């Protein structure tokens, strides 16, 4: 405003000087017209006054012109300085334009990198999804195979329990008939081995179930962790894309502002000759705008640097995640191989157990057949022995009746060798001897049959010897004491017969 006032005062002074010059020209013309006449005193006084006024006006005009010339020189120097500043500002604006273009190129490259990272993330997400799906399918197959193995093991356990019950029944039957001790011991040992094997398989299956449960829980946790990480990465990528979009829009706005400011600066430079002090204010405003633009540019550079660092961090995180996925995939593959190997071992153990169970079933069937044959033979032998014991009792009753009749016979009659009753008694004695011999022969055949029905070990056992001794003792002492006295008192052949029976 002060410069405009000064310019206005200079223009007023110029107008006043032009007015004085016109008056001076009029006065000179009037003086030239009056030079041929003599002036009066009043005219001379007026002319002197006008001359002095014109001299003072000329002096003032010369001083004003000198001040105006000095002001014009200062204005020209300021204009030259402003031209240099404008050129410098143009150069700075061109450099800033180039930097903004570079920033736009970097932003576009960052956008391309972000799109590439998004594509890589999508591929990684698809690969992780496919890997997780394949791992889930493999784990489901493993769980299905393990469940089938458990069911087969349960069936085997039920079969072993059934075999155990049959073995207990066979053991009870064998104890009742007191036979097949060696086969029973072998079956007991085989049963204990089968029980130990079944218990080992059950513990191994329980451990396998626990391991499968732990692996399933671990895989679920890893899937949840991968899902959370994918969601976090998706959020970070969306935030980065949003920030990149905001940064691009901000950079475009700044570029447009810079172009507009440059055009305004050029127009102000074109009007610099006529505006004067306004150009200084505009220069100050341009400097302030340049400072603000520099600050915004610095902030934009800082944001671009942060975006580059964020992209580098995302790249490193993606690389780390890719390595971690590769390690997890390798670990999952190793775990799957280990699980597959353990399942093969379990299948091999189950196959061996099936083979042992088949052999055990065959052996048990063979033992059952032998036991049934022995039981049938024992029943037949027992039936024959019962019939023979009945016949023997009948014979013994007849012998008893004969012996009682002989014992109750009078001594005179017994001493008479030529009586008819002695002949009858001799016939009865011979008949009794024949019956006793027949019973002894039947007992010997019974002993032989019992010996063929039993094993040599069972025949040689103390229980079998005690049974035979008891049988002989009971057979010998089954007779009445009166019969024993009659036998001891009468007939050497009868005593020898019973002695042979006792031996």
TrEMBL record:
Residues 86-127 form a coiled coil. Keywords: Coiled coil. Residues 267-302 have a biased composition (Basic and acidic residues). The keyword Transcription does not apply. The keyword Protein transport does not apply. Residues 413-422, 453-469 have a biased composition (Low complexity). Residues 261-304, 404-432, 450-469 are annotated as: Disordered. This is Laminin subunit alpha-5. It comes from Hondaea fermentalgiana.
